[in-house]
Design goal:
The protein has about 500 residues and is an alpha/beta fold. Helices cover about 25% and strands about 30% of the residues. Strands 25-24-27-22-21-18-4-23-26 form a nine-stranded mixed sheet, with helices on one face. The chain has an eight-stranded parallel beta barrel with strand order 5-6-9-10-11-12-13-14, surrounded by five helices. A hairpin with a 4-residue loop joins strand 7 and strand 8. Helix 3 crosses helix 4 and helix 8 packs parallel to helix 9. It is globular, with a radius of gyration of 23 Å. It starts with 6 loop residues before the first strand and ends with a strand.
Length: about 500
Amino acid sequence: MKDTSKKVITRIGKGVISTVLALAIGAGGTAGYFFYSKNADMTIRLNENKKHQTFDGWGSAACWWAQKTPDEETRNEIARLLYSKEGLGLNIYRYNVGGGYDPDKERVENPWRRTESFYYYNKENGRWEYDFTRDANAQAMLDAALSYGCIDTVVLFANSPHYSMTVSGMASGGTEAYTSNLREDAYEAFVDYFLTITEYFLDKGVPVKMISPINEPQWSWGGDWVGQEGCHYEEDEALRLLHLFAEEIEKRNLPVTLCAPESGNIGDTTKRYFENMLADETIRSKLGTLAYHSYFSDDDRTAKAKLGAWIEKNAEGVPVAMSEWCELPCINDTTSVQAALRMARVICQDLTCSGVTSWTAWVAVNQHGAKRPAAGEDFSDGMISVADDFSEFYTTMRYHAMGHFSKYIPAGSVRIGASSAIYPLVTTKTDDGKTMFSTSVNYAAFLTPDSNTVLVVVNEGGERNLNLRTDRAQMTVIQTDATRQEEAVYEGAVQEITLPAKSLVTILLK
């Protein structure tokens, strides 16, 4: 019987108006000329013979929210929405290995962002010991997610070393910004601690494929701001730690690789961390994927293309993962179609410009966000927004954005060629009055393991017609816009279709 004390809500998106430009680009050429248009028609040509990266799948982090899930019913419903075939079908699960906290020192105010560690101080015998009955809610959430059969990859990740191994005695960073909080004498202890926990999950039969002991090493993590766990690492410090991890993984003969360094941006700092890792033969031998986060580049195709070109030239044979993104700062209400479009734009550009082999959202579930400026608006950054006690929760428009990809482009799909002679642009104004230009139409195409073709088109501009050049004969069109969520709007022979203003469309071709 349904628990009427909980409300699972479906919410409808709101449209956003923007000005649209169009940029004419010759096939294979460079930027040509600009002309104003709110509805420039497009032709997209699909080339199944042009193969790019093989895709490993879609995921999200269980950081913080999993430990708050209150009961079996709630866990199963959220697991169904995220990790089942009738839901998003996510196959990558990021489990947070929390650094714990000393109640007498902890400065993180939000209890959601404090973690319970498996490693604790036993006051009775005066020793640090492991207790794997801890973090029980988060472990139960992982078990519920695994029960649906979609997850093939679990990544264990840490935002910080255990607090007992830090300079400040806190997992929330050092007392000085931009200073590593891992004690000089605790590098080996951190490696042993993390891999002992890894062995526990492997012994349970959890499909741990990668471990990620470092998170956004270039950020300050400490000083006056301690909103969550974190630890800064200079490039040499990160290299030293990852080298020790690689050595110990080999020594213990563990079937895991490194996901690193979880860079917080895609700028020059990222390349330096990447270069150091790739130059270290021991690290490279255990490197499962280079990992970056797509923050602060939501509108910057050029930066992502430069990173992708650098990786292709310098990291041949090493996969690259976009392992964390959410809207930051979060300026779109959870019900706004623009929230879905922004997320889908980032996904498309990470796929096509950077060439990522997996794409993982930040938190799958988060607290209802601050209501500003009008009552009723929710600025949660999760794909599911929840009350603190989980008494109500609902899927956001970002959930549907992910669905346009994860439901139709499974692991094992191969990105194929897709091109158009017209690249419409959209203009926006920044807070300081500057005009920003970004592509208002983004798209990515894949050949799936069952030999079908999937094209996802993100239209942030006005209504426009779309023609496809493809050898396929039949098509199904799934659409999300201001009034629809993943609704099938056409099934039949391949033909010209209309892309509504502010819409996200997935086209299945057979």
